[in-house]
Specification:
Radius of gyration: 57 Å
Largest sheet: 6 strands, antiparallel, barrel
CATH topology of the largest domain: Elongation Factor Tu (Ef-tu), domain 3
Distance between the termini: 88 Å
CATH superfamily of the largest domain: Efflux pump adaptor protein, beta barrel domain
Number of helices: 4
Strand content: 25-35%
Strand order of the largest sheet: 3-12-15-14-13-16
Number of domains: 5
CATH architecture of the largest domain: Beta Barrel
Structural class: alpha+beta
Number of strands: 23
Shape: elongated
Length: 427
């Protein structure tokens, strides 16, 4: 790109100053001196051409474009090398294998539920409506059969019993008198002192009075039974679970229960078990129950299995008989374990077992060091690893880790087993 210089005007005709004009056709500079002035050295005087505004604008645009291209190449032009896996690398991958030896494994079924009384007996007022005057038992008390739990107002019933008792005495006296008259009539019947009609009337009177005694006796027994029901007693030996009776409360027949008693203090765990596990559990198998906040387990036995399965939850009932213990309080949350099988199974680390849409599988190393996919079935997870219930015999070479980077049929190198470090003592 060339530069345009401003034109040089010709020197004026009349000029008294010693000025040297430089034209386009003059190749260099000439030194002009005046008398009494110092001479200029060659090279001290130069001329710098002035660029036009258009040149500056074009140069600025070019620099800006270059800066934009450099920034864009750094931002979008850099390409990271594609990530390569063990299977894509040129060398054979080095893998670590293990042989899953058989280990003793205990198969169990776990379920949750709650502690409950085996026989939960509600106790309510069976007599007439009345006000509770006294309460003799609290929740948690151990009671005996016939022991009083509460007492209902019996002032009216006592008077009824006394009246019927007096009526019974009166009926007995009348029956005795009628029986004596009938006996005397029978004594004079042969002499003809009384007619047959009179003798028959006295016999009927004696029979009626004797029957009246039985009626009054029955009424008295009924009143005494109602009076006895004003005393709420324990029907069996057991433990009081709840107490809803309060002094001053009106207790009516058919109302809510006043007490709940666990018969004999027997408790059990009531839970629900999955449908697929219900078929493996049998009545009489041993079980272990764990309570929240208590470290020690409680042994028990499977007592009952549900006859039906809930179609909504796909769960069935299970009941575990437990020995009476103060820590086993009805209503407490519990977790139960039932041991269903003890056998030898291969156990693998969880890193060696993988899963996809086709199920669980492991990668085996064949004798010629080829990778082979092999399906397995996992029956459970323990602290030692995954329990393999089907698919392995325990003698295979299984890839321990990083199986996701390998392909089926790929050739690999097997890493040698690690040598244990033996500590030596310096002498």
């Amino acid at each position: 790109m060339g530069t345009n210089l401003d034109p040089i005007l010709p020197p004026p005709a009349e000029s008294k100053d010693p000025v040297t004009w430089i034209g386009r056709d003059r190749p260099g500079l000439e030194r002009v001196t005046q008398p009494g002035t110092a001479a200029f050295e060659p090279g001290e005087l130069s001329v710098r051409p002035r660029m036009s505004r258009r040149v500056w604008v074009i140069g600025s645009v070019v620099v800006a474009l270059l800066l934009i291209l450099v920034a864009a190449s750094r931002l979008f032009g850099g390409h990271k090398p594609p990530a390569t896996t063990l299977a894509d690398s040129g060398n054979e991958p080095l893998v670590t294998v293990l042989v899953p030896a058989l280990q003793p494994v205990t198969a169990s079924v776990t379920f949750t539920g709650a502690i409950a009384a085996r026989y939960d007996m509600p106790i309510a007022n069976e007599g007439d409506t009345g006000r509770i005057l006294a309460v003799y038992a609290e929740a948690g008390d151990h009671v005996k059969r016939g022991q009083a739990l509460a007492r209902i107002d019996d002032s009216v019933m006592v008077q009824q019993v006394n009246r019927l008792a007096a009526s019974l005495e009166q009926a007995k006296a009348q029956a005795a008198l009628s029986a004596a008259e009938f006996k005397r009539a029978q004594g004079v019947e042969a002499a003809g002192a009384l007619s047959a009609e009179d003798i028959e009337k006295r016999r009927a009177t004696a029979v009626t009075d004797a029957a009246n005694v039985k009626v009054v006796a029955a009424q008295l027994a009924e009143a005494q039974a109602r009076l006895q029901r004003t005393h709420i007693v324990a029907p069996v030996d057991g433990t009081v679970l709840t107490r809803n009776a309060e002094v001053g409360q009106i207790a009516s027949p058919g109302g809510p229960s006043l007490f709940r008693v666990a018969s004999g203090g027997e408790v059990e765990m009531r839970g629900q078990i999955a449908e697929q596990d219900l078929a493996q559990v049998k009545i009489g198998q041993g079980a272990t129950v764990h309570l929240t906040g208590i470290d020690r387990p409680f042994p028990g036995t499977v007592r009952l299995l549900g006859a039906i399965i809930d179609p909504n939850t796909r769960l069935g009932d299970i009941r575990i008989t437990l020995k009476p213990d103060p820590a086993l309080r009805p209503g407490a949350f519990a977790r139960g374990d039932v041991t269903i099988d003890k056998t030898q199974r291969p156990v693998l680390p969880q890193t060696a077992v993988m899963a996809d849409s086709n199920g669980s599988y492991v990668l085996l190393i064949t004798p010629d060091n080829k990778v082979q996919r092999h399906p397995v079935r996992v029956s459970g997870i323990t602290d030692a690893g995954a329990i393999i219930s089907d698919g392995l015999t325990g003698n295979e070479r299984v890839v321990a880790t990083a199986g996701g980077f390998l392909r089926d049929g790929e050739t690999v190198r097997v890493a040698p087993p690690a040598t244990p470090v033996v500590a030596t003592t310096a002498k």
